[in-house]
Structure formats: structure tokens, C-alpha cells
Amino acid sequence: MRAVVVNSFGGPEAVEVVETEVPRPGARQVRIKVAAASLNPVDAGVRAGVFGGAGERIGLGWDVAGTVDAVGAVDGAGAGGAWSVGDEVVALHYGAVKPLGTHAEYVVVDADAVAPAPATVDAVHAATLPLNALTAAQALDRLEPAPGRSSLLVTGAAGAVGGYAVRLAARRGIAVTGLAREGDEEFVRSLGARHVTSDAVADRAFDAVLDAAVLGEPALAWVRDGGRYIGVIPHAEPASVRGVETGAVEVSADGARLAELVRLLDEGVLTTRVAETYALEDAAKAHARLDEGGVRGRLVLVP
Question: Which tens digits make up the pLDDT trace of 145-166?
């Protein structure tokens, strides 16, 4: 099968499409025939060596939508449930340094990382959901904003993680302010933000900040004394000041939680955004487009 890998770190030119053996599922794993897999900023970080793995062949890709085509020994217990050949699914394949990712024709994932595919969108759109929506949901879990009482600032509110965070928080009754570029105000308001700004908000003291734009210390300054700050890059959060609790979400694969997010997508609560699609063999071109910036929605690879 074909798979996208990096054998050495660098820019888009480091991305290779190689022939490799089709992986086999082990106990409590399933193999998915990939229909679509999104490209995320974390893939660019892996490609550049941010997460280590020098000297190894590293597979790219975290998100996947496709069809189960082989099942290991799955007993049906736990969040993942029992999966059968032919099931249409989505999943998060966690891990920055792994021999094969989802940017491939087939991928093996743990059964409890899998959820039924959305019924209301195609595989290309479905592939943009797992990593970004799970990151947003799990970051909000860490912040624990109180409905009707807490104020929340989301930086990068028009982005993939930030947009899901705004929508999920607003649905819980949280007073959300979105920090986004000029021109994105209408979109961020449509997600449920009560206020949208493109300027510094130093005059506000928020109970919590979800820093999806990775601003670091400037975003920390907008948290009230004793509030909470959560970033989206593990171990890259700023040091605590003024009693502010700081941390970063490290997304985890969770099929049960992903199934809830799929349900919200099917109910119209969440929406997906696809910027462009690329054939798998054009993965390097997709990376180059990602590096250019200004992408609204996700780039998606189609085998």
C-alpha cells in the first residue's frame, strides 16, 4: 500500500509517499480502509522534527474516515464496542512518532478510538472532526467553565480547534469571547460567541482562556488572578503567574467521546470545514499549501 512518511526532517520536500506492507490488526484493534484523512498543523510539526524521532521513518496523519476492512480480537467491552467489516467509521490515531499514520491507504487503530461515521457529511468532511473536536472538548474539560458564571476567551476562534471550542462552550451556556482576525467576526459570532475582537483584550479579566492560537504569555495576561489557562501544545504553556493555573491539553483517543461529537455534527450543532482536497501522492503539495498559511478549513488527503 501507499503511505506518507518522513525519513528526515525538513519542509514539504521531506514528505515522501512510499510503498509498504498493509498493517494487520492485533487484539482489540481494527484496520480501516482510508477514504479521507485530514492534514493538521501537528503533521507539519512532526515533519519538522518538533516531536523527535530522528533516524526513524515516521508516518504522518492523525485523523481518518473510512471503512473497517479487518478486525482483530475485539470482545465488545468498553467504549469502542464491537466493530464489523464494512462499518463506516471515524477515528483518531494518536501519536506524533509512529511508523504509519492515517495518511495511507490503510491504517490500524485501537478499537476504542473508533466511532461511527457521521450520517450527514461525506468522508472528506468527516475526516476533519476527530483531532480538532476532541482537542476542543478535552481542553474545555480541563478549564471547567461554569455555565452562567464563567467568562471564557478563545484565541484563534475562527480556527479548527478554536471554532469547535467556541461552539461547544456556547452550547453549555458559557459567555464566550472569540479572538480572531478581522473578517472572521461574523463567522465566530455564528458559532455562539457573545463578543468577538481582533484587538488586544488586556482590559478584560477572563475566568479562563483557551489559547488555540498558541499566543502564550500575551493570552495568559488576559486571565484574571487565580483563573485558568489551557494551551494546545503539551509542555509549551507559559509559567504560572498571579495564581493562574496553567496547562495544556494533550488530546487522547476516545471513541465514546468522539461518538458524542459525531452526534452533535449530525444534529447540526457542529459543522466541518474543508478548504481543499489533495490526492495522497500530492501530500507534499498539501504540506506546502499548509505552510503558506491563511487556510480556512482543513486540507484533506484522499487515497
Answer: 888 888 999 999 999 999 999 9
pLDDT of residue 182: 87
Q: Decide if 254 is inside a domain.
A: no
**Amino acid, single-letter form, for residue 19:** E
Residues 298 and 242 in one domain: no
- DSSP code, position 239: P
Among candidates 205, 199, 200, which has minimal Cα distance to 242? 205
Query: Per residue in 191-207, pLDDT tens?
Result: 999 999 887 665 678 99
Strand-pair partners of 151: 175
The three cell numbers locating residue 43: 503533521
Q: Which amino acid is at 180?
A: A
Q: Which domain holds residue 175?
A: 132-248
Whether the full predicted model's pTM is greater than 0.85, yes or no, is yes
- Burial of 38 by CB count in 10 Å (0-12 exposed, 13-18 middle, 19+ buried)? buried
The whole-angstrom separation of Cα 256 and Cα 259 is: 5
All 3 cell numbers of residue 190? 455564528
| CATH number reported for the structural domain that contains residue 26 in this entry | 3.90.180.10
d(CA 226, CA 209): 12
